[in-house]
């Protein structure tokens, strides 16, 4: 999963990045509204964490521009203001949730994970596909109730496929949700990791569709 953090406080931004990365996210940051608006408009993210009080362009304006462009990524707004009218303005601009400073970092991570899960159509915190189960809040993936031993990159790939099981996920889509903006996107590495995951999750669970991408099946073929 990939997150965009738009926050002008360097210390808080660093803390948010650390917390999101520890939860398995690839994370990009912007310290002002203009850069944040640009990244959100040109890159692909599973969730954005957006401060309302930003230099150069307010968070409300950033969010309004994203929504005007048809960008439907989940957005969690951050605000130091306790006035209900600021929260209303955020929701009217298209926010999905909010957190008021000061907040616990793990709360922001949980709220972000919940927004991603719901955007993918999953109402419950546990996502099940056959013998595989993902606890989206804990980030734990099990097979037949036994936790899988996965690298961080394997976890990112399998988590995304589980969120979107039973549909084709193209290589381009997968790479866009795995890598940070300044990282080279390597399709060959993805192929290698998919091969390792097949051995860990069982035969027939992850299918390669030539010229299309991958499908994680909720039921193995007979």
Under CATH, the topology of the largest domain can be stated as Rossmann fold
Poorly predicted segments: none
Average pLDDT score: 92
What would the principal axes of the Cα set say about the shape? elongated
The largest sheet is: 5 strands, parallel
Supply the number of helical segments.
8
Q: Which homologous superfamily in CATH is the superfamily of the largest domain?
A: Response regulator
Structural class based on helices, strands and sheet pairing? alpha/beta
Portion in beta strands: 15-25%
This entry's quaternary arrangement is single chain
Spatially, the strands of the biggest sheet line up as 2-1-3-4-5
Helix content: 40-55%
What's the CATH class of the largest domain, please?
A: Alpha Beta
Q: Span from first to last CA? A: 31 Å
- The tally of structural domains comes to 2
Q: How many DSSP E strands?
A: 12
Structure description:
The protein has 222 residues and is an alpha/beta fold. It folds into 2 domains: 2-119, Rossmann fold (3-Layer(aba) Sandwich), CATH 3.40.50; 126-216, Arc Repressor Mutant, subunit A (Orthogonal Bundle), CATH 1.10.10.10. The chain has 8 helices and 12 strands. Strands 2-1-3-4-5 form a 5-stranded parallel β-sheet, with helices on both faces. It has a 4-stranded antiparallel β-sheet with strand order 6-7-8-9, with helices on one face. The chain starts with a strand and ends in a 6-residue tail after the last strand.
């Amino acid at each position: 999963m990939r997150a965009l953090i738009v926050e002008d406080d360097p210390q808080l931004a660093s803390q948010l990045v650390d917390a999101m990365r520890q939860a398995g996210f690839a994370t990009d940051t912007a310290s002002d509204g203009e850069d944040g608006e640009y990244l959100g408009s040109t890159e692909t993210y599973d969730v954005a964490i957006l401060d309302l009080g930003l230099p150069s362009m307010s968070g409300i304006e950033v969010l309004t521009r994203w929504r005007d462009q048809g960008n439907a990524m989940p957005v969690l707004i951050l605000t130091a203001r306790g006035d209900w009218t600021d929260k209303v303005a955020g929701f009217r601009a298209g926010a999905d949730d909010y957190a008021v400073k000061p907040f616990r970092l793990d709360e922001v991570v949980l709220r972000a994970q919940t927004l991603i899960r719901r955007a993918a159509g999953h109402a419950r915190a546990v996502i099940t596909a056959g013998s595989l189960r993902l606890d989206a809040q804990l980030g734990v993936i099990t097979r037949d109730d036994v936790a899988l031993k996965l690298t961080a990159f394997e976890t990112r790939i399998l988590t995304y496929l589980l969120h979107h099981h039973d549909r084709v996920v193209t290589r381009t889509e997968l790479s866009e949700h795995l890598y940070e903006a300044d990282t080279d996107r390597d399709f060959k590495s993805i192929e290698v990791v998919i091969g390792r995951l097949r051995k860990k999750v069982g035969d027939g669970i992850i299918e390669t569709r030539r010229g299309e991408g991958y499908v994680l099946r909720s039921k193995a073929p007979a």
